[in-house]
């Protein structure tokens, strides 16, 4: 009996040690993956990316609007294909707990949406009554798909469709003829200012949020108390 009890105790201890080792290994993997997935992607040179996509060597040969559009497409590709992929819609660890990189993704997405809307509604149209570009008409709505959907259709699948449409527009900027209609890009000052106004408002809202989330400096409180009402 004593020998059997000793054997059972040994088996129980072995099971506990095995379970503990499994849990420790799982936590280690999650922590390491979290550190890797949570790091922001590196910056990129927009001119070099445009030259590589267009398969040309001289910047002067890039069609007008190509670099702008390629930058948007590349930002979207980085969101989908960086380390860990797109994190915001993850429902399992470690992505579920990575709120910093999720905030980064949402900020980049908001910028991407604003810039794509400006491309569709302003830069690619000569007048307000002119026809909108067919590829941009498809691309913009896909980037406005909900940013945290993991079910079908997934966020990644919808954003990829937007990327593909931007690539089609870029191809028509570079090559056209026959049945392929030439894409347009109008670099007028009024188009740029309309987009700049959106960026200014975004930055203003961001500065307001940052000021509200930062404790007031004691000197600023003292100055407010001494200033005349």
Question: Which descriptors would you attach to this protein?
Answer:
elongated; 229 residues; 2 domains; 66% helix; mainly alpha; 0% strand
Describe this entry's structure for a reader.
The protein is mainly α. The chain has two domains: 1-37; 44-187. It is 66% helix and 0% strand. It is built from eight helices and no strands. The chain has helices spanning 2-37, 46-54, 66-81, 99-123, 134-143, 155-174, 189-213, 218-226. Helix 5 packs antiparallel against helix 6. The protein is elongated, with a radius of gyration of 26 Å. The protein starts with a helix and ends with a helix.
Average predicted local confidence, pLDDT: 81
Number of strands: 0
Biggest β-sheet, characterized?
A: none
Residue share in helix: 55-70%
For this entry, what is the oligomeric state of its chains?
Answer: single chain
Determine the strand fraction and express it as a percent band: under 5%
Overall outline: elongated
Number of helices: 8
Could you name the ranges where pLDDT drops below 50 across 5 or more consecutive residues? 217-229
Rg computed from alpha carbons, rounded to a whole number of angstroms: 26 Å
Which series of helices and strands comes N to C? HHHHHHHH
- Domain module count: 2
Distance between the termini: 90 Å
What structural class results from the helix and strand content? mainly alpha
